[in-house]
Protein 1
Amino acid sequence: MLGSPLTHIASLEGIPISPVKMRVVSLEGVIDEFEALTKDAGRTQRETLQKILEQNGETEYLHKFGLGGRTDPESYKACIPLVTHCDLEPYIQRIADGDTSPVLTGKPISSISLSSGTTQGRPKFIPFNDELVRSTMQMYRTSFAFRNREYPIGNGKALQFIYGSKQAKTKGGLIATTATTNVYRSEQFKRTMKDIQSQCTSPDEVIFGSDFQQSLYCHLLCGLIYSDEVQIISSTFAHSIVHAFRTFEQVWEELCTDIREGVLSSRITLPSVREAVSKLLSPNPSLADSIWSKCVRLSNWYGVIPALWPNAKYVYGIMTGSMEPYSKKLRHYAGRLPLMSADYGSSEGWIGANVNPSVPPELSSFAVLPNIGYFEFIPLEKPKGQQLAKTASTVHYTEYEPVGLTQVEVGKEYEIVITNFAGLYRYRLGDVVRVAGFHNSTPELQFICRRSLMLSINIDKNTEKDLQMVVQEAAKLLAAEKLEVVDFTSHVDTSTEPGHYVIFWELSSDTTGEVLRSCSDILDLSFVDAGYVGSRKTGAIGALELRVVRRGTFEKILEHYIGLGAALSQYKTPRFVGLSNNKVLQILCRNVTGCYFSTAYAV
Ligand code: AMP
């Protein structure tokens, strides 16, 4: 039934539906539920907070602050302080160590999620329970229902580049793994994927294989085996899709050989993965020929996705925030297919669904689901001029009292505070968002950046977003040379006096020193933060240095993080590497092929 619109899906746990509707519910029903939840989002929020506090009323944490069983927002805000992860660490550590008393949650914490940790250099421990799986499914279904309305898909499969990560046990015996792995392992995930016609083309052995290179190869292979059935190409983050197709460029001939002969490449050595994938393989010379002839006709791999997956309707994954730099390459691979940016959430909990899927990824916003948590927003205002100092590690905005979900204003920026069923109370997420508009009475948020400051030597302040824009500006020079920045990161070198910014670039191929010197000038000039410009002019910050690294360096960094237990599905290239992250710094420094200092501010 390829191409025919999907109208019915089954078993929608987590959404209040009538018993009669329990077995078969239309996607329109999912949309109706969403409309109902957001119609009076303020009321849904009060009810959600009440539920969270009732469920967790007996916890040590809520007792400590004397909430005394009250569940209204006013008492809650008056008694419970705003916290960051550091404040909760001792509690989470006790849970990890085996304390089974209700520390943070009434219901037991089923496992510990490890956040990607690529920003801080070490993973954070976050409590995980079934409520998070439930809200994840609600999020998937909601955005799927909206997507399907505009881009209907029929019975089929999804080529999903998803990867489980290593599972460790905490001292107290809880499983500790990434949030995505916790979700992929759940029964509800499988059911929902089936419901929304997004079953992965790869068997579980591939998703949970212990070697991500082998898993990636097999994802590509299984995707090709089922090429006619694939309707969606996706991953959690856009980076994984780009990474997959960069790999495809290297291994496509080998994949063709496997399909032609029906024998899996010897590069797949893990017995469980070999066995599972071999079952799907049988000699298919005509498919191999067709893939081969399509690949050789492509120009620089433009449009490889629709060429090989002719029934694919779109490419789906998070493309906002730190994933923006990959969308250009993704567009190249996707050719005529639309790119759709996926929802907004974190290991700590989900926030919003993309309910306007046809909006281009750069402009995507996320409608907050008002029943998955209680949300507050700290109004942030950029300081004018230099009158405000920065704190050690975050961008210093002027902060105001947190406001509720329905009190935010269009065009303004906020830091999100979440309270949810996983035992996070008034937890500052550290993300800055801008309100783009409203869907009914729930806000649609645009992701702006992580609040943490990356590049700072003295009075200068630059965030990940600033770096991203600067790199984008300088990379325009490369476009003329048909070159691209494969990946990038930054560092502050204070071993020189004065200290200076270092930008590391991996390029798709070589270019002249002249071009790279011009790039380093543009990088230097494109940091427009007044503190930086002033310091550069007075010489309080030295000339920016562009260091070009060998091809494959960022792959080594990725492997390093995977080795530490990160999941490829959740991987985000660290955009700043500090001295404390010495392993990654070593990988970068060992692979430098050329350094180019800016002469932009030379006097
Ligand atoms: P993690 O802690 O590994 O789960 O990563 C969560 C973080 O990823 C969030 O706090 C955001 O900074 C970022 N993130 C998640 N979803 C999105 C999105 N749709 N757009 C931009 N950034 C996102």
Protein 2
Amino acid sequence: MRDFDHYFIMKSADAAEFARTRFHLFEPGAVLEHAEIGDGNLNYIFRIREPATGKAAVIKQAGPTARLSDQFKVSPDRNRIEHDILVIENDLAPGLVPKVFGYDPVMNALAMEDLSDHTIMRSALLERRTFPLFADHITTFMVNTLLLTSDVVMDHKKKKETVKGFINPDLCEITEDLVYTEPFNDVKKRNDPFPPNLDFIRRELYEDKEILLETAKMKFDFFCNAQCLVHGDLHTGSIFVREDSTKAIDPEFAYYGPAGYDVGNVIANLIFAWANADTVMEQGSARSKFTGWIEKTIDEVMGMFVSKWKALWARSVTEPTARYDGFAEWYLDGILRDTAGVAGLELCRRIVGIAHVKDITSIKDEAQRLRAERLCITAAKRCIRERDRITTGSDYLDVLFKAAKKYARGHA
Ligand code: SR1
Ligand code: MG
């Protein structure tokens, strides 16, 4: 039997033993099933289950490098950050994140609720499943966790203490490189564009000086704007869904940054799902029903985000200067501007950079993949350039429809 008093990368049998002895999640004699189920870019995820009782839990362990590539040396402390933010998010947005059972700083491992009755949203969307409560759930999650951790509401000294606990240099560096820099400047020579689209990417991104300048401005906002505690990686692969439930998972990229980072990620990843369906599905009612649901969801996410933000703001502002006339509008306008800019960055980086999304890579036909990529990059550029003006659901749909029209199906 291992005593887990020094760090090593566990196998699933170790994780079962660890769940039992370290967190007492199972009785000493319990017969356990165990498997490593992680398919993300960074960590090892073990599902431990006792068939006799149906009891189950997940152990998530951080390794010293990313699974995607050992070029990324990432502090295992990210698991402590994930634990700490899940505790905060559970408090601010109950039911919208997995419950955590504990964290072990030696093994850099976290124990949490098993969510195998949910599906990763990206996979569910590729199966054309729809989730009527998603917009409502995700906007409650974002508004509560973002606004209530900001200086608008928090005691400023306590907020500064909290910022200290979420200094996350390694994972922020990944975002600074992969989201803000490399899609537009392959400075580390590790981009992974679809080869037939390389000329387009070179012309539209690497050589577009106006876009380069705008991305630099946004990068400095990501460096410097400790606005609130952001999830930091809120794409559809970090969201578990069920018809009646939504759970934001994997907040290891959390840090104090711009609120629009989270909202922009949600919007961009809905756009990926739309681009996939609009490109790949046969024309007809199934396609319009699915794309129509995504359009409605984009519209609802933006609408509900703004209305819930205003309502919570009115109930919870504590900072006196934030009550001055015009301040609430100025503050929210800034978040909406960042949302559009980040949506544009996320759309580019998943196509050009090393960390792709299945919505695009699963498209096998070359012409279709080119069309989906170009549509997304065209929409992205407008989101970046016009981020001051793209604020509502209808604005995003206008961006999307115009980009889709430019690249009509079959004519990439
Ligand atoms: C090296 S990690 C690559 C990407 O995977 C994570 O989910 C984040 O999105 C990160 O940018
Ligand atoms: Mg992740």
